[in-house]
Write a structure and sequence with these properties.
9 helices, elongated, seven-stranded mixed β-sheet, alpha/beta
Length: about 250
């Protein structure tokens, strides 16, 4: 049973889990990650939580099949609702949208403390998610990006141990170019010169330049809304400037 396989994305999560910890896997689906952590003797206990009954039924079957009933517990739970305060040393939240993860973290604030390892992998809204972390005092200790099946995945290792920041109106002009760059692409990823991020930046620049060309051409159309077109052009120029700033890190 030791040859149990995980996706590269979940292997990255597993590699970062603190040894011999109690792990709560939020949105566990079929409990693949908790089963692996138990089989590899990485965790002392894993709690597999999901809001959906059917995936948990499959998770229960998988846990029995791989003979880790003594190490993996399943709970029907909306986010961290059924997790006791400070019950887990590690909380993993992966494979869901950034906005949903933000809601789970808000509601689960009293279930973790400054020592709890938060392994977070949002599937969307990365900029908003990083802003949420910053404004709520959740520090990113390290971050990695991988590519699997033509999809880009980011994993953040975080602690809720800093003072909450004053919130700003989250719009295009709320933050400086440097802040925008870090929120969009990740300060840790940029400083560590993550090769997958560089690939994404080069792809994004090509896309933005193409969009800018089309929008600039639309600027000359008779029926174009000039105010909206000019605003969009300014936004695109800033987007490209920020990408160039990020690429300069490499």
């Amino acid at each position: 049973m030791k040859d149990y396989k995980l996706s590269d994305r979940l292997l990255l999560v597993a590699d970062w889990v603190k040894p011999k910890s109690v792990v709560a896997d939020i949105g566990t689906d079929h409990a693949y990650l908790p089963i692996y952590l138990a089989l590899q003797d990485i965790c002392s206990k894993a709690i597999a939580l999901d809001v959906r009954k059917k995936p948990l039924e499959r998770a229960k079957e998988n846990i029995a099949q791989f003979d880790v009933l003594d190490r993996v517990e399943i709970r029907l739970s909306d986010g961290m609702d059924e997790l006791l305060p400070m019950e887990a040393d590690v909380v993993t939240i992966c494979g869901m949208g950034g906005k949903l993860m933000m809601d789970i973290l808000r509601r689960g604030r009293k279930k973790v403390n400054h020592t709890t390892q938060l392994l977070l992998s949002p599937q969307s809204d990365l900029r908003l998610f990083r802003i949420f972390l910053y404004e709520n005092g959740i520090q990113i200790i390290r971050e990695n990006m991988i590519k699997e099946d033509n999809q880009y995945y980011v994993l953040m290792d975080c602690r809720w141990n800093t003072v909450e920041k004053k919130q700003k109106t989250v719009n295009f002009q709320s933050y400086s170019d440097m802040e925008e760059m870090n929120f969009r692409y990740g300060e840790y990823l940029l400083n560590s010169k993550n090769g997958i991020l560089k690939e994404l930046l080069e792809h994004d620049k090509t896309v933005y330049l193409g969009v800018l060309k089309r929008v600039t051409e639309a600027h000359h159309l008779k029926n174009a809304d000039m105010v909206k077109v000019e605003l969009r052009i300014r936004q695109l120029h800033r987007d490209i400037k920020i990408i160039d700033m990020a690429l300069d890190k490499f």
